[in-house]
Amino acid sequence: MSDLTRSPWLRAALLIGAVGLAGYGLVSQWPQVHAALGQLDGWDVAGAAACAIAGLGCMMLAWRALLADLGSRLRLPAAIRVMFVGQLGKYVPGAVWAVAAQVELARDYAVPRRRSATASLVSMAVTLVVGLVAAGVTLPLVSAHAVRQYWWVLAVTPLVVVCLYPPVIKFGLDRVLRVLRRAPLEGSVGRGGMARALGWTTLGWLFYGAHAWFLISVFAGKSGHTFALSLGAYALAWAVGFLIIFFPGGIGPREVALVAVLAPVMPSASALVVALVSRVVMTVGDLAWAGAGLAIARGGRGASRPAGPGDSRPSPDPGPPLVSRRGADGPPAGR
After folding, report:
1. How far apart are CA 269 and CA 31, in angstroms?
2. SS3 label, residue 328
3. Total-model pTM
């Protein structure tokens, strides 16, 4: 089974199937979908795009805080280039292309491979945990249907909160890497670094929730209740897309989960429009930040060195990279 899940042909088939199902949903409900699209205002889409871009920026700052805590403090232009140009790898079939690309780009700034890989993996784990907490806290408060369908999210919330403690998150990731026959993390993130990363990640999730709110509120009304629903629904859908690693960028599973959560509060055609427009908006955000990163590289800003003398300490154990450039059997990449 593991050989099948590593097959690029199977991944491509799954992606084509997801896109085909989305296309079928559009065609089969086209009158309703067309009417829902007509309800979307340009300002709502622009607001969603602005919030998506802001949320992505916050996630980058969380990763940068973790990397700085581990000993490599990057200037902001360099961090933008490494994070967002590398993150385009998540759209390539395969589990670790984004991490592998970030690791190689970070080497231009004298960041040891294991250190940048550690920061990327811890950042993804923090993003996932905060997202699950957001879903577990908000969905039961705004939707009885969500409580019945997704009770398990609420049940695991106390456990995932414990996982945010730096030694615990390092222990868990080291166990995963050991199973995958990879080198362990370079070291444990300090409490201060984790606190800063949590702050930026939480702010990022609030922006992600706001991006969904701009779209969902068109059909469900503009209120605090709708914002809580938007945050919880998008957080749960994002987590589903992240965990089902066979789909590049979570394309397919995220949209299916979002439609399922929104189904009790709006027509399925409207929920489908929200899911698809959200995907487009988030992709635009990825491309906008990646474009900024490429412009930085072209302009020669953020030269290939750490932020300043003493800002980067040598890795105590350089060791082999945590991820293979082939990326066939590593941990999941960011979504």
Report:
1. 9
2. coil
3. 0.77
Dist CA 335 CA 329 (whole Å):
17
* Pairwise CA distance, residues 82 & 108, whole Å: 9
Residues 6+ apart with CB under 8 A from 172: 125, 163
Q: pLDDT 10s per residue in the chain (335 long)?
A: 334 334 555 445 544 554 454 454 445 444 554 555 667 788 898 999 999 999 999 999 999 999 999 888 999 999 999 999 888 777 766 556 778 888 888 888 989 888 888 888 889 889 999 998 898 888 877 767 766 766 776 677 777 788 788 888 778 777 877 776 777 776 678 889 999 999 999 999 999 999 999 999 988 888 888 999 999 999 988 988 887 766 666 667 788 888 888 888 888 888 888 888 898 888 888 889 988 988 887 766 444 444 444 444 554 444 444 444 333 333 344 45
* H-state helical runs in the chain: 2-6, 8-28, 30-39, 42-70, 76-80, 86-87, 97-106, 113-142, 144-149, 151-162, 166-179, 191-220, 224-243, 253-262, 268-299
Q: Which two tokens stand for residue 127?
A: 């993003």
Among 169, 200, 174, 201, smallest CA distance to 186 is for: 174
The one-character DSSP state at 314 is P
Residue ranges per structural domain of the chain: 17-299
Q: Are 293 and 62 in contact (CB under 8 A)?
A: no
Amino acid letter for position 264: P
Residues 6 or more apart from 102 whose CB is under 8 A from it?
82, 83, 86, 87, 89, 116, 117, 120
- What is the C-alpha to C-alpha distance for residues 232 and 226, in angstroms, rounded to an integer? 10
